[in-house]
Amino acid sequence: xxxxxxxxxxxxxxxxxxxxxxxxxxxxxxxxxxxxxxxxxxxxxxxxxxxxxxxxxxxxxxxxxxxxxxxxxxxxxxxxxxxxxxxxxxxxxxxxxxxxxxxxxxxxxxxxxxxxxxxxxxxxxxxxxxxxxxxxxxxxxxxxxxxxxxxxxxxxxxxxxxxxxxxxxxxxxxxxxxxxxxxxxxxxxxxxxxxxxxxxxxxxxxxxxxxxxxxxxxxxxxxxxxxxxxxxxxxxxxxxxxxxxxxxxxxxxxxxxxxxxxxxxxxxxxxxxxxxxxxxxxxxxxxxxxxxxxxxxxxxxxxxxxxxxxxxxxxxxxxxxxxxxxxxxxxxxxxxxxxxxxxxxxxxxxxxxxxxxxxxxxxxxxxxxxxxxxxxxxxxxxxxxxxxxxxxxxxxxxxxxxxxxxxxxxxxxxxxxxxxxxxxxxxxxxxxxxxxxxxxxxxxxxxxxxxxxxxxxxxxxxxxxxxxxxxxxxxxxxxxxxxxxxxxxxxxxxxxxxxxxxxxxxxxxxxxxxxxxxxxxxxxxxxxxxxxxxxxxxxxxxxxxxxxxxxxxxxxxxxxxxxxxxxxxxxxxxxxxxxxxxxxxxxxxxxxxxxxxxxxxxxxxxxxxxxxxxxxxxxxxxxxxxxxxxxxxxxxxxxxxxxxxxxxxxxxxxxxxxxxxxxxxxxxxxxxxxxxxxxxxxxxxxxxxxxxxxxxxxxxxxxxxxxxxxxxxxxxxxxxxxxxxxxxxxxxxxxxxxxxxxxxxxxxxxxxxxxx
Length: 756
Prior knowledge:
It is a single chain. By secondary structure, the protein is mainly α. The protein is built from 35 helices and no strands.
């Protein structure tokens, strides 16, 4: 047989890398996708304020601490530019392809290079390489193969050194207890330590590699036909690590990822059906990779139908037949099939995986498992081409040299065809991973009932300002999944933006019917109800939100605003204080609290909080104006004047500052502070700005006082009388009485000055 792909020339390794980069060249212009934000772009452990300590000591790592560590390191060098992350994934995939080639060579698998190349260029791998978060697969895969590589290296050298000494010391009583390291140099120990280390690193990258001990046992059996006691002892530490990682993963999926509830409540018969279908589904995608969908339709499982169990039964019978048939080819097929099923075992549905909420299958689940069937395909192609050259159909090819040439030509042609075809399909498939809109649009083209894609596409379109399209996709998600609380909530938010408050209320209420403990939805419902004038209903929702989440600062502030509108300033002050205890740097609640304190006459506290507002927002004209009013109420007139002037410097059209400063300048008991001409100018500006407001009678009173201070008593009298008429219409008797007294002064030619 021509060993065309079995040369040790590392040019073939370079060619593998070139094949990978050619197939994945498009991803370098791609962006971030789906849960890249939770793992990377919005993960506080990566972008701050947390860091590596929290990656390794808290659930922020989402049970992938080594992957997040890689993200953290890369982020410190390149920030959030997507292409370096894509480059890393492609490099790791290319490195894994080279390692797979070498592992297959160690296992003396025919067509090792071709098997690795088929795996490297197969489009099923695109999801694991083009999706940044699936660094989990690419990184764990590299460490997984390194662990196998060094374990096989250890096994070979220890087997050799044991065989070298076995004949001379077979009867020695000291050698009855077999050790996996006995009579060997330090090199095998190093290989074993490296294998164990890389398994740990693979597990910390993604725990789905937990089946590695079984895979190692399968590799040993393939090489030797048996598993010795030495091998069993060597596998013990791997099994212990695997057991810990398995328990850890099950716990994380259940309690952190949230894989618990009706969507994961399959019975064991249903789980067996899922497992059987999944095995054949994944194998079919390797044979015919079309269509490939980011989210496949979630199967409806009916355990009452006997035919539903046929796929699992067929898989079991197939493995049994391969085990029993005493043929070289059946042994190879059995090992490939067993490796495939063993590697898929964690994602066949026997354990809850959060992703099963959307679909029971996904391309990235078979990233490692696919190595077995594709290596078998590579061996089959090489074997087939070799046999073709010496078949009876070519009797004229008598010489070995000519047979070898035919085999080589056939092998090159067939291999080039498959690699080019797979590479082209991969190149085409990478296009849909360009951005989230492209990804979900492509998903819905092939799986129009994918509610998750509708929902996430709605989020992406809204971020791009396409609100109407986003609303449409949220509505479609709800049509497909009526109890989709998140879709109801987001649809409610967008309807608020569109001014459709009644519709928003309906969707917020539906979201809360599904998930009554959603404090944020209750708060937003309260805001919407408040906007429709249903203040009491809004207050009730805010209070419920605070029962669910007592430290919800935004709900406290919103409740305070609602209480202010009801005239309950004491209750509002308490809620504002609760809000600010959580977020003291918020200017708006500081301002609202100061205003409530001012209304209650708690002047010193009001002044203190207005000053805090101005520390946060020095250009807040209203805060300056209200601070002036608080100073004025305290009798600190000069400070009040300074505060009003600061307000007018920032906002010359600020009516309260204009009118209040004009009043001081016109009526102050301190003659050194009075300035009639400036008072007139300010009051006239206030009059023009407030001609249609409820405060217009007050502004007319101020303008009349300013005219009188300037000696313009006729205008003062006329303006005051106009103010009196408007005050009477409003029923403001206090203002009416004050204006009557002041009109009497103006008719006598006297200005109005406040008493000392």
